[in-house]
Automatic annotation (TrEMBL), chain A:
Start and end residues of each ABC transporter domain: 22-286
Membrane-spanning ranges: none
Stored PROSITE patterns: ABC_TRANSPORTER_1, ABC_TRANSPORTER_2
PANTHER family on file: GLYCINE BETAINE/PROLINE BETAINE TRANSPORT SYSTEM ATP-BINDING PROTEIN PROV, GLYCINE BETAINE_PROLINE BETAINE TRANSPORT SYSTEM ATP-BINDING PROTEIN PROV
Ranges in a coiled coil: none
Organismal lineage: Bacteria, Pseudomonadati, Pseudomonadota, Alphaproteobacteria, Hyphomicrobiales
Family: Belongs to the ABC transporter superfamily.
Keywords recorded for this protein, A-Z: ATP-binding, Nucleotide-binding
Organism: Mesorhizobium escarrei
UniProt xrefs under InterPro entries: AAA+_ATPase (IPR003593), ABC_osmolyte_uptake_ATP-bind (IPR051921), ABC_transporter-like_ATP-bd (IPR003439), ABC_transporter-like_CS (IPR017871), P-loop_NTPase (IPR027417)
UniProt name for this protein: L-proline glycine betaine ABC transport system permease protein ProV (TC 3.A.1.12.1)
Automatic annotation (TrEMBL), chain B:
Alphabetic keyword roster: Cell membrane, Membrane, Transmembrane, Transmembrane helix, Transport
InterPro entries: MetI-like, MetI-like_sf
Matches recorded under Pfam families: BPD_transp_1
Location, primary (coarse class): membrane
Source organism of this protein record: Mesorhizobium escarrei
Membrane topology: Multi-pass membrane protein
Record protein name field: L-proline glycine betaine ABC transport system permease protein ProW (TC 3.A.1.12.1)
ABC transmembrane type-1 domain residues: 136-316, 506-685
Annotated compartments: Cell membrane
Top-level taxon of the source organism: Bacteria
Length: 368, 697
């Protein structure tokens, strides 16, 4: 089994330099009267997770996060996925210290945020972090413009500057013309656009999104996901994205962390999670996602043979899902040449490999 | 009273089934024993004087020690408030009435609409025509001074209670007391500290008006969603910024509602404070007219109070309404309103330059002739005197007397047409026993016990019910709904009232309240059901209920007094008028909030409308209904001292006597007794509901 912390073996497809932006180590969060004492019990014993949780519950404590560690790379979309109540919101709130973790470390660059003073945290939230909330969290007494400008106002930016900046953000999320509407006059999708604009107004390096699209209906959700990907293309933020929707996770993620009962049980690229789930729980999760849609050509390609002749085969970008190659493969194409932007040919994909991936997909289904 | 609902009820697991049966069996035996011995041991009925604990003298002792200590600071406060009150009153009286009228009309327009402006103008116009302008302005100046004080203090207390747990626990107890001790009772210590006159009234007014503000502030702050607090956190707010820019604006609505309720409470108290006199205001006019049995005047001035209450309520409520539009527009608006408001003020000042026109304007004051009205009302009463009298006699002999002195004494050939012979007694007892036995056999032993106790109470009346039996029954009730944790304080409470020597007035109070609550629950419940079933009726009813609820308690005495003269019946009617709104509201709300799918299911099954009401809507709406009854009881109890003005002989009368003699001990102990009764019944009712698995909030 691979190391869940950094997903060893799953280096990002691009060979560009990898910079770790956010590093979490051993975060615990226990709700209740005496969390410290409960934590000591938890760390002392070595019982299986479920027994520990139940034992803490007997003393009136609730284990919301247990020993969570992961890294988020610069410019990456890191999706945290899990069922309702698995501790996702608690996790993301611990990162920004809206909720105080019981123990652990959150490293932002060279600074451990959990050791920072309250003043310093206010500073960090003002300058470095932005967050989008599930239920939008728009202030009902402010109009769209004032809502977006709100974080800037808290920093004491002069009115003219913050209005200009807020207008830019509103433009960016496509809400031009609605600046003076009140939140209640907007549809759900529009409200969340305002939420997104507000979280981006301070130009944060870290962008947290806690189930931003869960409250929207499926069609709008899809639109917003596209919109989100467009924005990320443009802005290249470092993102922690929370969701309970597996389709959404696989659509957006560079890497996914799957949570269960406060623990991370697997971290990896979408394809890896599909191909090698750590246990039946994860496998059952991913049942509904088609491998062919998620697995990219680059992730399953074979090495270029040394004697390779540059004129043979169709060229295909590494990020193309296998599904897109199916028609050509069925029509008789035996070999695809995988290329990466700026690098030229990097590997080969044969129709045999494609067939294997598909077989794996159906096999999984047959087993269950 | 809503603060009571916000307090946590501590309920132990209700007592186990078999133990409960045994205990109630014991209580029944004890009660029968007391009843059997009531003639042999007269002390069972009248609590012996020698056993009275000196609660009242103790309170007086404390005051004798406290008053000299507190007099100097109170004198300072008194002179400051006095100066402010004078200035305020002077300004309001100095303004010519058309200017003031226009000022309030503009306020009404901004608060809601031109319709409210019109209403305000007509209402204030009436006050001018009725000739109560000066008095009205005096009353208003008290309110104008009391409200900002109460709002500020209440807001600060509310914020404190929201942030600190210790402040909260102290505040909640204080609020509970302030809301259950009748207003008259806490006028007494203020009287000792500030002397007779408007200042004591003003202070009472502030004290009485603080609780709703505290309560609404706490509620508003507590209701700010966590998600918005988090938004503030992520936006990088400091604590203070978060409070100012996120919490306060979100809680604004609720806080403004608090301002509205505070204003109404202080208005109501200003009127009540008139009883200590010394101030030429509307409350005093009403009281004076009532004492002289001058119905014309009391009607006219009573209407002035009603009208003022409505105007003040609608304007403050209008401002508490949610606003649309952004902060920018609101700021722009504020400037415009200020400009509009300045116009009448300047106009009024200009009028003073022209004394001739002033004089002409003033001739409009008091053109309504109360004597004509007086004659009309007297004629009306005389015309209906025969039916009114027979109604009075009927209610008195058939409902009030039996409850007070018991059927055994109340039933005579003269009143009921037959004598209460031993045979009748035997028949009565037999019927009761059979009914109780039948209920018990059918598994409803609780109902059986209720029947037995009720029958005993009816037979001997509240006055003939031995006090040890009373204490035992209340304790048993508290124990079976709320366990030991409720039973102990309840027993201490009832024992306090009894040992203070107030058992007799307590019985009187209970009998009045029980009757009033029965009347209110029955008729109010019917009205509520009708309102729940017909939207049109509900729409018609709502303004009536609103109006009734904003009226100061005094007002309800006037119609009752007019038709039934001084006496217990008049008191009863006044109490019932004041307490009828809660059952209407809660029953309507309860039935309306029965889930639609339940209603549909019951229709699908084939319930008739009546069956649906009995088997679906009542049971589902039970928590709301119980809460409504609870509110009725609170209202009835708080009305007792006011009803004492028309000659009831109960705890309220004791408070009233204490007030008029400036006897702090008597008044406070009696007031506290009313508060204790209120709290006991409140806790028992709420425990009943929470046992049924429903939360009351
Ligand atoms: N203040 C609190 N006190 C006690 N328990 C809490 C508290 N806040 C959260 N929890 C518990 O922690 C668990 C994790 O909550 P969390 O909100 O992080 O779940 P989630 O994964 O975000 O779920 P959802 O998808 O429903 O948002 C839940 O079971 C919740 O009951
Ligand atoms: Mg969540």
């Amino acid at each position: 089994m691979m190391n869940p912390v950094d997903g060893t073996g799953f280096s990002r497809e691009s060979t560009a330099e990898v910079v770790t932006k956010l590093r979490c180590r051993n975060i615990w969060k226990i709700y209740g009267q005496r969390p410290d004492k409960a934590l000591a019990t938890a760390l002392g014993g070595s019982e299986p997770p479920l027994t520990l949780k139940r034992r803490l519950e007997e003393t009136g404590h609730f284990l919301a996060l247990a020993d969570v560690s992961f890294d988020v790379q610069q410019g990456e979309i890191f999706v945290v996925m899990g069922l309702s109540g698995s501790g996702k919101s608690t996790l993301v709130r611990c990162l920004s210290r809206l909720v105080e973790p019981t123990s652990g470390e959150v490293w932002l660059g060279g600074e451990n945020l959990l050791a920072a003073s309250e003043r310093r945290m206010v500073e960090v939230r003002r300058k470095v972090m932005g967050m989008v909330f599930q239920n939008f969290g728009l202030l009902p007494h402010l109009d769209v413009l004032d809502n977006v400008a709100f974080p800037l106002r808290m920093q004491g930016m002069p009115p003219a500057d913050r209005t200009a900046k807020a207008r830019d953000m509103i433009e960016l999320v496509g809400l031009r013309g609605r600046e003076n509407s009140m939140p209640l006059e907007l549809s759900g999708g529009q409200q969340q656009r305002v939420g997104i604009a507000r979280s981006l107004a301070v130009d944060p390096e870290l962008w947290f999104l806690d189930e931003p699209f869960s409250a929207l209906d499926p069609l709008i959700r899809r639109q917003m996901q596209d919109e989100f990907l467009r924005l990320q293309q443009l802005l290249q933020k470092t993102i922690v994205f929370i969701t309970h929707d597996i389709q959404e996770a696989f659509r957006l993620a560079d890497r996914i962390a799957i949570m269960r009962e406060g623990r991370i049980i697997q971290i990896g690229r979408p394809a890896d999670i599909l191909l090698t789930p750590v246990d039946a729980y994860v496998a059952s999760f991913t049942e509904e996602v088609s491998l062919a849609k998620v697995v990219t050509a680059g992730s399953v390609m074979a090495k270029l043979p040394g004697n390779w002749d540059a004129s043979r085969g169709h060229e295909v970008d590494a990020a193309t899902p296998i599904e897109m190659l199916l028609p050509r493969s069925l029509a008789g194409t035996q070999t695809f040449v995988i290329t990466r932007e700026g690098e030229g040919p990097v590997g080969l994909l044969t129709s045999e490999i494609i067939a294997k991936v598909l077989a794996n997909d159906t096999a999984q289904r047959v087993v269950r | 009273m809503s603060i009571l609902a916000a307090l946590p009820v501590r309920v132990d697991n209700p007592a186990p089934y078999f133990r409960r049966q045994t205990v109630w069996f014991g209580i029944l035996i004890f009660v029968s024993f007391c009843l059997a011995q009531r003639t042999a041991w007269p002390w069972l009925l009248t609590y012996p004087k020698a056993w009275i604990l000196p609660a009242a003298p103790a309170v007086n002792g404390i005051f004798d020690w406290l008053v000299p200590l507190l007099t100097p600071p109170c004198a300072v406060i008194s002179s400051m408030l006095g100066a402010a009150l004078d200035a305020c009153g002077f300004a309001l009286r100095w303004m010519p009435w058309p200017a003031t009228l226009a000022f309030f009309a503009v306020l009404g327009w901004r608060a809601q609409s031109w319709r409210l402006a019109l209403f305000t103008a007509v209402a204030l116009g009436y006050i001018v025509l009725a000739g109560y302008w000066q008095q009205g302005m005096n009353t208003l100046s008290m309110v104008t001074l009391a409200v900002p004080l109460a709002v500020t203090l209440g807001f600060l207390l509310g914020v404190g209670a929201h942030t600190s747990r210790h402040v909260r626990s102290v505040t909640l107890v204080a609020l509970d007391l302030l809301q259950t001790v009748p207003a008259f009772a806490f006028l007494i210590p203020l009287l000792l500290l500030f002397g007779f006159g408007p200042i004591a009234g003003l202070v009472a007014c502030v004290a009485y008006a603080i609780p709703p503000m505290v309560h609404c502030t706490m509620l508003g702050l507590a209701r700010v969603p966590v998600s918005l607090l988090e938004v503030g956190g992520m936006a990088g707010c400091t604590r203070w910024q978060r409070f100012w820019h996120v919490v306060l604006p979100t809680a604004r609505q609720q806080i403004l509602t608090g301002v509205n309720q505070t204003t109404m409470a202080s208005f109501s108290m200003v009127i009540m404070a008139a009883i200590i006199g010394g101030f030429n205001d509307v409350g005093w006019e009403v009281l004076d007219a009532m004492r002289k049995a001058d119905f014309g005047h009391s009607l006219l001035s009573g209407l002035v109070i009603a009208v003022l209450a409505m105007v003040v309520d609608r304007i403050t409520r209008g401002f508490a309404q949610p606003r649309h539009g952004s902060a920018r527009q609101t700021r722009h608006d504020a400037v415009r309103v200020a400009a509009f408001l300045a116009v009448p003020v300047v106009g009024g000042a200009l009028l003073h330059v022209a004394p001739a026109s002033m004089a002409r304007i003033d001739t409009l004051q008091g053109v309504v002739d109360p004597n004509a009205l007086n004659t009309f009302v007297l004629d009306l009463v005389r015309a209906f005197s025969a039916p009114l009298d027979s109604l009075k006699v009927f209610v008195l002999y058939h409902f009030m007397l039996p409850l007070r002195i018991g059927l055994a004494a109340a039933v005579t050939p003269f009143t009921w047409g037959f004598a209460w012979t031993p045979q009748v007694s035997a028949f009565y007892a037999a019927t009761t026993l059979v009914l109780a036995a039948w209920l018990t056999v059918n598994g409803r032993w609780g109902a059986g016990i209720v029947v037995l106790l009720g029958a005993a109470l009816l037979l001997f009346g509240f006055n003939g019910f031995p006090w040890p039996a009373f204490i035992a029954v209340t304790a048993g009730l508290a124990w079976s709904v709320g366990g030991g944790r409720l039973a102990v304080p309840v027993t201490i409470g009832t024992s306090f009232v009894v040992t203070a020597g107030l058992y007799e007035p307590l019985g009187q109070s209970l009998y009045l309240c029980v009757l009033a609550v029965l009347i209110c629950t029955f008729s109010g419940g019917l009205i509520g059901i009708a309102a729940a079933k017909s939207d049109r009726f509900s729409a018609l009813l709502r303004p009536c209920c609103d109006t009734l609820q904003t009226m100061p308690q005094f007002i309800f005495l006037i119609p009752a007094l007019m038709f039934f003269q001084v006496g217990e019946l008049t008191g009863l009617i006044a109490i019932a008028l004041y307490a009828i709104v809660p059952p209407i509201r809660y029953v309507e709300y309860g039935i309306k909030s029965v889930p639609a799918d339940l209603v549909e299911t019951s229709r699908q099954i084939g319930c008739t409308a009546w069956q649906r009401l009995i088997h679906v809507e009542f049971p589902v709406a039970k928590p709301e209904i119980v809460l409504g009854v609870n509110q009725t009881i609170m209202a009835a109890l708080s009305m007792l001292p006011v009803a004492a003005l028309v000659g009831t002989k109960d705890l309220g009368q004791q408070v009233y006597i204490g007030l008029s003699k400036a006897d702090a001990g008597l008044g406070l102990v009696a007031g506290l007794s009313i508060a204790i009764v209120a709290m006991i019944s409140d806790r028992i009712m709420r425990a009943t509901v929470s046992r049924a698995g429903n939360s009351l909030d």
